[in-house]
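Moderator note: this is an archived Q&A kept for reference. The question asked for a predicted structure of one protein chain; the sequence and the answer are reproduced below.
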Amino acid sequence: MSENTKDNSGKAKKITREVIGYLIAIISAVVIAVLIRTFIFEPFIVPTPSMEPTLMVGDKVIINKLSYNFTDVERGDIIAFHSPIEENKELVKRAIAVEGDEISLTSEGEIFINGERLDEDYLPGEQDIKYLNQEITVGQDEVFVMGDNRNNSFDSRFFGNISEDRIFGEFVIIYWPPSRW
């Protein structure tokens, strides 16, 4: 075998090893990205104006899919869940009340949780909110949710409490558009 053939054979082996190395790196990166998206963080596009001005239609946000594996939903959390009405539709709303809470909605636009007025400093001040007088008890493993844009939100006032097993994550951050950071 000539020395030229040995050099070509060595170069071919080196190139093959490099290509295999790149393929392994690319496949590993794809597998890690899929695992992260499936089990940890999921990008989500806000579909409706129900959370305005906190979240605007089209905002791209990150949902933490692990958070409720280790903690319970708390009042005030912004959660992502599968719609109890429409198949294959996900929604984002604010948890207003949790298991065991008794809610009173008043025609003056106030909410009382277990007899105490709920302070909602996240609501836009210019909204003139009116509710039907309602008394609701949140059952075991349930959450009562509402959008921040109360006059334009289809939420628990209409479809009832949602089961915690419909919740798939907690809002973490807006990542697009940058002006909303």
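Archived answer notes: The helical segments are 3-39, 67-70, 156-159.
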